[in-house]
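Continuing from the previous page of notes. For each protein in this section, the sequence appears first, followed by its structure tokens. Read the first protein now.
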Amino acid sequence: MKYILSAKAIKLINKTPGVKAKLSLALKGLSENSINRLLRENSINSDLTKLSSLEVLRAELKMEIDQIVKEVKSNVIAKEARLAYSTNSKTTVF
């Protein structure tokens, strides 16, 4: 199965203090810059959809896993989630 983060989860990750630091620890010291890149790209089955990340997100965001991730049926870029990131971070997505 193929999963990406939901747009709602990305928005909450960017708004909730400390979540990126906890994700960094769960992902064995991945830098916050790398976490930001993963959020921006929202690639299918990225490190952010791994169980260790989902456990952190469930606890910190107070969301169920089925609200955090979204199943995708094709390799189409997740525009919805990428736009959620770009709207919050004031960057342009092409």
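Done with the first. The second protein uses the same format. Note its length before scrolling.
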Amino acid sequence: MPKAWCRCLPTHLIRIVFQQLPIIWIILLIYTDGRPVKLGLLLISLLYTLANAAHLVGELQEPDLSQPTLLSITLIVSAILSLEHYRLYRACTH
């Protein structure tokens, strides 16, 4: 595997997780109604929230005034997303 490609891999993985994955969530919510999908989306949204929290904590170690504000908003939105996925999953199990 070429070294240049290896250096780009983390960037591509981050783009997939934080850009394409939310779009896939939306599509799955629109076209599926199954309990396993709802559980999977809940677990993914929780991981997404944890990743955002870790990113914010990391940025607070080396303060840059532009990043904490943006990351705080992203963390709040991802927490709301997790809460809504939990509600959808609970509604599906009753």
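What the second structure shows: The chain has one domain: 3-93. The mean pLDDT is 82. We return to this in next week's lecture.
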